[in-house]
What we know:
Bound molecules: magnesium ion
Order of helices and strands: HHEHEEHEH
Amino acid sequence: LKPEQLxxxxxxxxxxxxxxxxAALSKQIYPQLELLFAIKNEEKxxxxxxxxxxxxxxxxxGVADVFLSVPxxxxxxxxxxxxxSKGKLSKEQIIFGDKVREQGYGWVCCYSWESxxxxxxxxxxx
Length: 126
Ligand SMILES: [Mg+2]
């Protein structure tokens, strides 16, 4: 499916799927997109058992959704927190962003796959 089709639902999940669809289609132009990946972070699993299993294996609240493992412009890599258009950052997400910035990483919050796409292109090409 094309990114535009995947994004139709408008959820954060839809936007993130659209971003990765775009990335798959754009690897010829930007080979570094091979190093773009999603991070499993804490979300509502609907089950305390599943939640505690995730936590035990190192899954953490506040960790960004996506990481581009490519150093550019003085940054070690770029974290992207994805949100639906009306999403809000949690306290933990803001703290995570501050901490990774302190360590020399880029961190951005994007409210659509297009905005994430534009930031990635800008990051890779400047
Ligand atoms: Mg998110």
